[in-house]
Structure prediction request, 422 residues.
Amino acid sequence: MKVYRFGVAAIMVAAMATSAVQAAPIESITATVTGEGTPLPPVLAKRMQAAVQTAADHIYVGKDTAEVSASTDAYRRVTADIINRILYGYTVDSMTITPGVNGQLAVTVKPYGPVVQQVDLQIDYGNLSPEARRMVDSDLGSVRSRIEQTVVGAPLDSVDWVTAIASRTVRDDLADVLPEFVPQISITPGAVTKVNLYLIPQGTVIRQGSSEIESSTLPGILFLSTKQSFDSYMASWEGVPVAFVARHERDILASVSDQLAKSRAVSRFGLVMTPDLLLGTDAVLRIKVDSSKYILRGDGYLDMGHTDRNVGFKAYTGVRQGRGELYLETVFYPQTYKWEFLPSYSYRVAPYTTLGYQYNVSDHFNRTWIRQDLGERFHLRAQRDWDIKHNEFGLAYDVHSYLTLEFVVDDDNQWLRLIGHL
Prediction:
């Protein structure tokens, strides 16, 4: 009797459990979308999956599993109708619904009508120069293939929402690889679909590009053609975002160095040409040119506020020996037609500090001096003429490679000196 009662109780519990399972609500449903015959474009498949998943959550989550099982056909029709609406250009080919606390929805779709067979991608660079375009192309990298992955295989009728997805995909991709430009995309459907990608610069752009040639050993006028060439090169970066050029600064300097290395003067005269970029709305390519063998340069100066020998021309000729320079400084004063000759030696004791000695053959006195560079354009000079007991100090500013302003102070006076570099 006890066994009988136990058996009845067990049957009742099992029945209740079965009833509970049948009446349990659907807590989650996993939707999958696949293409019938032809795989879906990868980028579209991800978006389609998300859209169908959202629809499935609204349709099934919270519904009773027994109700869904009993009305599978009705649910299939409703689900197919919704999917056909949200995936315009596609139609549901087959569907499998597996009710349960954690249900499953498997959907197979196929395009109706013709699909995109090929993509003709055209990139509108605006006013970018060929050099800038090459660097933009290197940044774009896989973006071209990503656009093709988005569009190829998509139904022609789905171009409207495919364009939105492609635009979002390109924008997300370029935010990482080309953040200095805002992309705009347009798609013209066809068997060969035309995709136009417009790149719009954003942020501060270069308004003017130029170059400067600096040399402490050779006349800058010798490199006039080089300057003109690189003036044109820097002008080609006008209209390009400053941030883009800054990000590619290493590549640009490497390209400039390659061009400079091809000059015959580099090997013939032992020249060392070092480029540097100063970036801003006015971008400057500064090229420092020095000979490892020879010194040949000239200056002319004009003093304002000083009457003694206030106009002069100087020529420096000599050789370089490591960090030292052995040269002859020749000075001509046109007002008095006087010449001075100063055999000289200078030595760079530190990257920004130079010591020098000179002997004035004409007036028979010894001179020592020190020059301290203060950054890129400022220089501090102090000199002592021992035999005539004369001290002179100067603070100079390089306006550009051909002009320097120097404020000079000696034992008796102070004045402004304009120095022109040949």
